[in-house]
């Protein structure tokens, strides 16, 4: 056995790399040992770094989709599914995680739940890609701003949870924002609402699986469910001369092929972050993506923000401030109770 400091450093960082690549929930079993190897503060710093990387990459997606022109939303999503499945197969092979995938597929409840999740994420991807490629990236970013409010409402409607006063206030302000934005857009902001609902429901469905399936296996199953339809779309478009994958040069081909990596890597970063950070911190980090998307839409993509939209977005941000304040307050109270219990 190696007892030197260098050996400890190498083993600790090798564990980090394998955890990042596999994104496996089984690493929770080794969390106490990891904590003993390094200070908790360092774990938090690493978790925040992974979280910022995940949400930062998601925030930059509008630029990537613009680079894929003249490919449309349907072709982009079809390629994203097929290439993601290829990347996941390679990942499972490298990490020798096929047994976990096979075990998950054999469980009918897990397979059914992840099939529902696959449909929801497909709706989310199609809507988001359509919004960005048709000059509506601002409204797409709005969907992820109001997603936390949708999650709160799902808790009330589906789980019969009771809201705290600040949560009620945030939900009411969020509803007012939708009304104002409907007036500002001259129509219901359906792109934002579909994005928020589909991703909120996706998160809810995924929670039903919980730690039973690691991130790589979960993504593999979801893309495998969608892959036959995505492949059929790609074949039909190719036969009708409507595809851009093989007709726009090698650079365009590899940009589309890279969608597999661009889809999977942020999810793996997120998995590494979520295992190190409390949900309160993850909840705050999630605002990185829509903020980046919003800034890019205005500065890089040149989309227009009229006064009514600024007012509507301002009301949404007020609702998020209320929700964040309630989250931090609840976290502080729970931490105080835990400390009081520990003293006893």
Describe the structure.
It is a single chain. The longest helix has 37 residues, at 307-343. The protein is globular, with a radius of gyration of 21 Å. The protein is 80% helix and 0% strand. The protein contains 17 helices and no strands. It has helices at 5-22, 31-37, 40-59, 61-67, 73-95, 98-106, 108-133, 137-145, 147-157, 165-185, 190-209, 215-239, 250-257, 259-274, 279-285, 288-299, 307-343. Helix 8 (137-145) crosses helix 11. It has one domain (41-261, 273-331). By secondary structure, it is an all-alpha fold.
Question: How do you describe this structure in short?
Answer:
The protein has 17 helices and no strands. It has 344 residues and is mainly α. The chain has one domain.
> Multimeric state of these chains?
single chain
Sheet with most strands: none
Into which percentage range does the β-strand content fall? under 5%
Percentage of residues in helical conformation: over 70%
Order of helices and strands: HHHHHHHHHHHHHHHHH
Tell how many strands the DSSP assignment holds: 0
Number of helices: 17
Low-confidence stretches: 1-39
Structural class: mainly alpha
Which term fits the overall shape?
A: globular
Q: How many discrete domains?
A: 1
Q: Gap between N and C termini, in Å?
A: 41 Å
Report the C-alpha radius of gyration, rounded. 21 Å
Task: Determine the mean pLDDT.
Answer: 81
